[in-house]
Amino acid sequence: MLGLIPLMLLVLVGCSSGSKNSEVLSTTQIKKNIGSKLISTREDAQKKLTKKYQSATKNKAYTLSDPYVKVNPYKDSPLTALVIFKTDKAAKISYTVSGKTDKTSITNQVKGYQKTHQVPIAGLYADYNNTVTITVTYKDGSTEQKVLHLQTEELPKYIKNAKIVVSKNDKSKMDIGDNKLTLMNRTTKEPFAIDADGEVRWYSTNYSQHTIEQTDDGHFLILTKKNVDSTVYNDLIETDALGRVYREYSFNNKVKSNDSGNAKDETTVIHHDLLELPNKDILATVNDGSKYKEDVMVQISHKTGKIVKVIDLKKILPSSMYKNYKAGSDGKIDWFHQNAVDYDKSDNTIMISGRNQDMIMKLNYKTDKIIWIYSGKSKKSWPKKYRSKLLTPTKGTTITGGQHGLYQLSKDKDGENILLYDNNVDVTNGNKKTSGKYSQAVQYHIDTKKMTIDQTWAYGKSLGKTNFTNIIGYAERESNGNTLVDFGYKNNGAESNVIEVDSSGNQVFNVTVKNASSKAYVYRAYRLEFYPQGYVFDVNK
């Protein structure tokens, strides 16, 4: 009787996933299970609004002195506005949303000289009569101005109840520029962005989970759901700061999963990270519908919504890693728990992070071949064919534990510089001696010729257990050399602490967000331009 158990298990796995009797699914089966496709539900719902704004661009009655103005133009981005007007001569447009204090004004400039002007305003305050100054500059250098007063609504409860406390904001040393805000990418509920004072200056009414990423053209990729009452996040939208939807992907919710293993908790197909590839396709971390979870990546065509490439880490790493890993309370085996992916277009490679193996790794994106691996797992415990790919740490270099947010900073003649957030929790192969004592942002240099890894900078160890986070977190290098560090699960998730430090580790910004809702932690914090150079708003396109 006992001998029948493995066979029964295989049959059950095959039935639940629709595959043949195999623990590892075929590429065809994974594609079928995820069932990604393009839909137009949200775009269709916005068509009437879009037509209204298109008509406004053709109406000669809208001038600088009497423009068309609409706050929250697409009904899901309340701290934005759209202003439309015409000028007799070609001109370029800039605007400033007046800040309440020094260095909190938001200034943006619309690209190029036009006679018909569509000005997307971002950075308004909530529940406030905002002052917005629009400046028209003609080719001869002459200017005109128009001052608008834009009233906004109060914040929704899950943002309003999140107590935001700024304990330090040296604005002269922060990387805030003319229009940068700190985006709080939460594990659930509405994402929002704050200024240096901690004032909310943007948010989306679309609930997101883990993933909100800005693309090169200034759009946002947001993993959301069809309605706020649903427990399944399986809609991925490409939108902009104003809330206009440009593209929408839908997924089969039958392959949904979550980290808690509790069936009552919110679930998702795409889980921790995604990015836009140079050809505009999406590379996303997904569940594949097997008994294993969070160990597969897929490339999704932006033209068809279909999956065009599958990377299954079970086919790349030693089978002992996943076969010997204990299943969770949901019966799923979360042996790798991929929480980051970063793409390098210079050599067509990706770097990934696996929390539950305390491991980071680089792959050739075309061939899926391993380039290097960094792990606390002893060299002798790896099968021989992997050993040449293992990086050797220099003296004093940290072994990562449960790390998050891996990405490449730069390359040099010897290799590359990378940054990650080291939770420093020994999941399987972390540092047992230091585990749980602190968390930190860490920069490494990887010498790809010598196959060594050297720790070159870190911040967080001096904060000790106070800022230890056993899950989530992020580190981001800013344009002025500062580093923004998100201790997202501080005090066991009661609060998230985002700190900006200079290269010497001196704090220039420190904000704490009390988590006002279950699981609404700051998963990642980004310092973003809210009108990046690549962004062009054109309602007629």
Automatic annotation (TrEMBL):
UniProt xrefs under Pfam families: Arylsulfotran_N, Arylsulfotrans
Family matches, as InterPro entries: Arylsulfate_ST, Arylsulfotran_N, Arylsulfotransferase_bact, ASST_N_sf, Quinoprotein_ADH-like_sf
Residue span, Arylsulfotransferase N-terminal domain: 68-152
PANTHER family in UniProt: CYTOPLASMIC PROTEIN, PQQ ENZYME REPEAT PROTEIN-RELATED
Protein name: Arylsulfate sulfotransferase
Species annotation: Companilactobacillus kimchii DSM 13961 = JCM 10707
Taxonomy of the source species: Bacteria, Bacillati, Bacillota, Bacilli, Lactobacillales
